Amino acid sequence: MVCKLARVLYAGFKEDPSLRKLLGEPGCIYTFFGVIEELARQGVLTALCLKVGGATASAAVLSVGARPRRVVLPRGLTRLLACLRLRGLLTLAAWLAWAPGYARTYSKLGETCHLLFIASLAPGRGYGSKLLREIEKLCRSAGARTVTLEVDTGNPALLFYAKRGFTPLMATVFAGRYYLLMAKLIGDPRPRCSGDEEETS
What we know:
Layout: H1 5-13, H2 17-23, H3 26-41, E1 46-52, E2 55-63, H4 77-96, H5 99-107, E3 112-120, H6 127-141, E4 146-152, H7 157-163, E5 167-174, E6 177-185
Parallel strand pairs: 3-4
Antiparallel strand pairs: 1-2, 2-3, 4-6, 5-6
GO molecular function: acyltransferase activity, transferring groups other than amino-acyl groups
Pfam families: Acetyltransf_1
Keywords: Transferase
């Protein structure tokens, strides 16, 4: 289900300092989330939506499971690339310097779902918490052992995730701001063999 993904995510992230630095004007940020929505429609990404009274209250997008073999480039991609300009390209290039260490840390986690964005149109009503539980269920059913995400160290959401069992793994820098890569174990930490016997007391 994709719902009104771009609209909800734009509402939640239009003031995000990193996106503003990377993409500049609000129209470019909305285009970015339009591309994300199109990728979710094609199955490249997975979208989850929480509806209340028939209206979307919260939405999330994550990377989980297999990818489709054929992907059509989203319509907004050309405009999004134009939005990046030199400033955005330099920001992305700087982030690549962190990529090797990031990849090493990430590779130790095994099968993982990565939560890219989650936002609510009505913060403080528990919609985000409910959607996060649904995300964990989806990831568990897909065979993932962990759910990972990145959060700005200055974002109050850091405490939200910590209270829900996410622990920090490493810090990265993007667009001049520090982010924490956080993870939550949702599956059995050790692989089970067919001959394993369950302990009884």
